[in-house]
């Protein structure tokens, strides 16, 4: 973050102290916020990690390459920092079964509100990596100031993701695909890796299908990328790809050819 002139800050958000890295150069302007993935949530299928801080913070790497005037990175609860109450332990449930709980979503939303007040931000463009894509989509549905959504290897349907890996459902977590219909008119682009065996491309495809319309949604396949490798070096070019809604098909209007009005026949002149 330092070479990209991003400054670390801890934001009190509900019971959590969330770690952010920010480069804000313009007041009263939009900001692009990158939301981190699930981090080191599990050591194995049956053993949860004691610290979910990511070994490879891909969302931070992507944010550092973004040349927009206002860029921020937002870590998830219990990554890098802990609770507002420094004497309290960060409950393991917030990076396992309740990683997308209403309490977590409200904390992430509170962090956006803090940024908005701190830097007089007018609107947000959200980018979510992996499970951060689920958070980003849920925030986009919750807020009126989110103007675009991008996901990178986004877990936009954690129930299907659990079925794919044959693991327990996240019973106490919100699921982006359940509110997909609310995002039908949100400009969005979902980047998927052709070699990603953690969050397969089919999950983003299922989410776009659940929108009810692909007028505002695009899926971009990066064939050589896996879940967290192959993205950073390509991000400057991927970031240039448009995120916009397609113009709705014009209504068909029946064409009626123009006919000049017929002249009334002239009456014959009488001979003098």
Outline of the structure:
By secondary structure, this protein is α/β, with parallel strands linked by helices. The protein has helices at 58-64, 102-119, 131-142, 158-165, 201-211, 235-238, and strands at 7-13, 16-24, 31-35, 70-74, 124-129, 146-152, 188-193, 217-222.
Topology of this protein?
Blueprint: E1 7-13, E2 16-24, E3 31-35, H1 58-64, E4 70-74, H2 102-119, E5 124-129, H3 131-142, E6 146-152, H4 158-165, E7 188-193, H5 201-211, E8 217-222, H6 235-238
Parallel strand pairs: 3-4, 3-5, 5-6, 6-7, 7-8
Antiparallel strand pairs: 1-2, 2-4
Question: How would you describe what is shown here?
Answer:
With 272 residues, this protein is an alpha/beta fold. It contains six helices and eight strands, in the order βββαβαβαβαβαβα. An eight-stranded mixed sheet has the order 1-2-4-3-5-6-7-8, sandwiched between helices. The termini are far apart. Residues 250-256 have low confidence and may be disordered.
SSE pattern, N- to C-terminal = EEEHEHEHEHEHEH
Q: What topology, given as strand order, has the largest sheet?
A: 1-2-4-3-5-6-7-8
Largest sheet: 8 strands, mixed
Proportion of β residues?
Answer: 15-25%
| Shape verdict | globular
Structure summary, number of beta strands: 8
Unreliable parts: 250-256
Class derived from helix and strand content: alpha/beta
Distance between the first and last residues' Cα: 104 Å
The proportion of residues forming helix, as a percent range, comes to: 10-25%
Q: How many H/I helical runs? A: 6
């Amino acid at each position: 973050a330092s070479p990209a002139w991003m400054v670390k800050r801890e934001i009190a958000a509900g019971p959590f102290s969330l770690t952010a890295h920010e480069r804000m150069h313009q007041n009263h302007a939009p900001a692009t916020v990158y939301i981190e993935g699930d981090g080191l949530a599990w050591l194995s299928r049956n053993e949860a990690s004691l610290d979910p801080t990511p070994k490879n913070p891909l969302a931070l790497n992507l944010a550092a390459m973004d040349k927009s005037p206002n860029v921020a990175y937002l870590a998830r609860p219990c990554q890098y920092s802990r609770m507002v109450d420094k004497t309290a332990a960060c409950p393991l449930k917030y990076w396992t079964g309740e990683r997308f709980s209403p309490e977590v979503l409200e904390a992430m939303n509170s962090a956006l509100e803090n940024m908005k007040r701190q830097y007089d931000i007018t609107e947000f463009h959200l980018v979510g990596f992996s499970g951060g894509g689920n958070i980003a989509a849920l925030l986009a549905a919750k807020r009126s100031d989110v103007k675009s959504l991008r996901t990178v290897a986004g877990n936009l349907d954690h129930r299907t993701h659990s079925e794919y890996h044959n693991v327990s459902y996240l019973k106490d977590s919100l699921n982006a695909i359940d509110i997909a219909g609310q995002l039908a008119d949100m400009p969005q682009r979902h980047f998927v890796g052709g070699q990603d065996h953690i969050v397969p491309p089919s999950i983003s495809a299922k989410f776009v299908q659940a929108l009810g319309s692909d007028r505002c949604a695009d899926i971009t396949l990066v064939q050589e990328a896996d879940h967290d490798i192959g993205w950073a070096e390509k991000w400057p070019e991927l970031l240039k790809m448009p995120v916009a809604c397609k113009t709705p098909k014009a209504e068909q209007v029946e064409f009626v050819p123009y006919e000049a009005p017929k002249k009334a026949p002239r009456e014959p002149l009488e001979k003098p």
